[in-house]
Automatic annotation (TrEMBL):
Name under which the protein is recorded: RNA helicase
Enzyme Commission code: 3.6.4.13
Family: Belongs to the DEAD box helicase family. DDX41 subfamily.
Lineage of the species this protein comes from: Eukaryota, Sar, Alveolata, Dinophyceae, Suessiales
Motif Q motif, chain ranges: 188-216
Organism (species): Polarella glacialis (Dinoflagellate)
A molecular function GO annotation: RNA helicase activity
Biased composition (Polar residues): 1-11
Domain Helicase C-terminal stretches: 414-574
Annotated ranges, domain Helicase ATP-binding: 219-403
Length: 639
């Protein structure tokens, strides 16, 4: 069967004929008929529809699944987003807080530093002109070259050639800190220091076999002709660091040409108290005697201190001398009256240098410098030397070497420090009990002369073998007291701070501070009379509510630093500075003015005291002509 008019046929399907005209079917041109659709059989159309529906449904399902996933991710993100932002916010806040805190602390530190710099500047202004001679300043003379070494001294080859790393390692091993240029290597044996036989024999006789840290580094530097600031704890043998080089200067001069009438001195040591000057003089005498026994001429040292007849001292100097040991006032007296000259002097040492400046002898030192006629080698020593004194002192030095053994102002670790709370009225009675702690010799310190007298009287009544020393006694009494105590005929010596600086009594067992000194530096010097050169000693300090809290805070910090027991009443004290006092700000820990670790310079009671004293003495001076030595408590008359 054929089908006419088939869509696929070119002629099309033909309908059965009914009426030719009517039945005539118009011919269709697929190109022209937009409605035209190819015929698709029903079966195919169904499967196509089915396919279409399936794919539609798949598409929808896929879209639905994607939407669900998208929603879930969005949810998740949303959730995480919240968590993130909370964490982030808190972190951010914390960071900001920390940054603020850091910023605040830095700002606070900067503020403290600026304030302290300003205060130090004021202090420097108060200390007026630098520590140099007025004459030299007027003439515009300043020295820039170092002095030549003493007698062309050089270290032996082993030390000359010592590599830097080895020098550093040795210093580290012995806790020696140095500052300055071209510092010679520390020398570990006296025999390697190129000292004359007489001196080496003298050291042996004194039982001194090995140099202490300050001696290892200080003696070679001094023999090299260097200017030195030497800081080392009490009893560490500083006297020999300047004493031996000064003897070497004198020996060199003597070997060049015999010292005759009116010549000399070539070396000068200034000390803050008569007793200390006397002690140093004895050390010089001992070693020069030893040199004389070993074939050298006897080098002459002269002691010029207050309290002894000026005439005898002037005569001794006029006969020609190599060395002078002096207290500042008497020295100035002799210089001003032209009974002594420093024209040939080329070696100057200020022992306990900071103490002298503190005690108001700055002007005497400057006047003394005026009497030199050329450059000299200058050495400054102390166990305490706060930054301001170091800076000030450096103005007197040329290309100085600074040698530090331990922190300036730290207590000697060989001293066991005990601090006891004793009521004012119970002190005397408790003192008797306290004296039983150790066998003699015992040293007792009081803050003022009248307390010394009271304690002295009380102990005499209790039959204690006791002597006393203070600035109000005449020189004879002072000398006798020290002598009998040194010889052991007296068990106890009571004194003011006149006995606290540099005095070297044999094997003191116990130092008792009947009262806490007003300055922590004095405490360090006082307790340093025991525990000397390797021995141990005990120091007991009475404190009570009469003490200023700042000094107790200094004491507490010192005890902590030295690893000592801190009694509960001190432990309970809390500074209101938030720990800033012990931080290193601007290179300074604690107070730059007095070296106390318990406060900073802004709260320094000593600075305040000095200010008040300066103002008062300026007033006195203007109205009454004043006494320049009124501030030298305990030292009165020393000049
Ligand atoms: N290398 C050493 N070995 C052993 N003893 C020494 C040594 N050097 C010095 N001495 C002795 O140590 C004691 C203390 O010395 P010196 O008085 O010089 O100490 P110092 O550091 O000046 O103390 P201060 O700061 O109290 O004045 C003296 O009796 C001294 O003879």
């Amino acid at each position: 069967m054929t089908m006419e008019g088939s869509a696929t046929g070119s002629q099309g399907r033909k309908r059965p004929a009914a009426d030719d005209e009517e039945d005539k079917v118009p011919e269709l041109d697929p190109e022209e008929d937009e409605q035209y659709q190819d015929y698709v059989p029903k079966k195919h159309r169904k499967s196509a529809l089915k396919e279409e529906l399936t794919s539609q449904r798949q598409k929808e399902r896929k879209e639905e699944a994607e939407r669900v996933v998208r929603d879930r991710v969005a949810d998740e993100k949303k959730k995480r987003g919240i968590a993130n932002s909370l964490l982030a916010v808190s972190q951010k806040l914390r960071q900001e807080e920390e940054a603020n805190q850091d910023g605040r602390e830095e700002a606070e530190r900067d503020h403290i530093k600026n304030e302290e710099d300003a205060l130090l500047e004021q202090v420097q202004l108060q200390m007026s002109t630098p520590l140099i001679s007025v004459r030299e300043r007027a003439k515009g003379i300043s020295y820039t070259e170092r002095m030549p070494s003493i007698g062309m001294w050089q270290p032996i080859r082993k030390y000359r050639d010592m590599p830097d790393e080895e020098r550093i390692a040795t210093r580290e091993k012995f806790f020696i800190e140095v500052n300055g240029k071209d510092i010679p290597a520390p020398i570990k044996r006296f025999e390697e220091m190129r000292l004359p036989k007489g001196i080496l024999e003298g050291l042996k006789l004194k039982g001194i076999s090995r140099p202490t840290q300050i001696q290892m580094q200080g003696i070679p530097a001094a023999l090299m002709g260097r200017d030195i600031i030497g800081i080392a704890f009490t009893g560490s043998g500083k006297t020999l660091v300047f004493g031996l080089p000064m003897i070497m200067v004198s020996l060199e001069m003597e070997l060049r040409a015999k010292v005759t009438n009116t010549e000399g001195p070539y070396g000068l040591i200034i000390a803050p108290s008569r007793e200390l000057a006397h002690q140093t003089y004895e050390v010089l005498e001992f070693y020069t005697d030893q040199l004389a026994e070993h074939g050298f001429s006897k080098l002459r040292a002269v002691l010029t201190i207050g309290g002894l007849a000026t005439g005898n001292q002037a005569t001794a100097i006029r006969k020609g001398c190599h060395m002078v040991v002096a207290t500042p006032g008497r020295l100035n007296d002799l210089l001003t009256k032209k009974r002594m000259s420093l024209v040939q002097c080329q070696f100057l040492c200020l022992d306990e240098a900071d103490r002298m400046i503190d005690l108001g002898f700055e002007e005497e030192i400057r006047n003394t410098l005026d009497h030199f006629r050329g450059q000299r080698q200058t050495l400054l020593f102390s166990a305490t030397m706060p930054k301001k004194i170091q800076d000030f002192a450096k103005t007197a030095l040329v290309d100085a070497v600074v040698i530090n053994v331990g922190r300036a102002g730290a207590a000697n670790l060989d001293v066991i420090q005990e601090v006891e709370y004793v009521k004012q009225e119970a002190k005397l009675v408790y003192l008797l009990k306290c004296l039983q702690k150790t066998p003699p010799p015992v040293l007792i310190f009081c803050e003022n002369k009248s307390d010394v007298d009271d304690v002295h009287e009380y102990l005499l009544l209790k039959s204690v073998e006791v002597v006393a020393i203070h600035g109000g006694l005449d020189q004879e009494e002072r000398h006798e007291a020290i002598k009998s105590f040194k010889e052991g005929s007296k068990d106890v010596l009571i004194g003011t701070d006149v006995a606290s600086k540099g005095l070297d009594f044999p094997a003191i067992q116990h130092v008792i501070n009947f009262d806490m000194p007003k300055e922590i530096e004095n405490y360090v010097h006082r307790i340093g009379r025991t525990g000397r050169c390797g021995r141990t000693g005990v120091a007991t300090t009475f404190v009570n509510k009469n003490q200023d809290e700042t000094i107790l805070l200094d004491l507490k910090a010192l005890l902590v630093e030295a690893g000592q027991h801190v009694p509960p009443f001190l432990a309970a004290l809390d500074p209101d500075t938030g720990g800033k006092e012990e931080e290193e700000i601007g290179g300074v820990k604690g107070c730059a003015y007095c070296g106390g670790l318990g406060h900073r310079i802004a709260n320094c009671p000593k600075l305040e005291n000095t200010r008040q004293k300066t103002t008062a003495s300026q007033k006195d001076y203007l109205t009454t002509g004043g006494n320049r030595y009124s501030g030298t408590e305990g030292y009165a008359g020393d000049w």
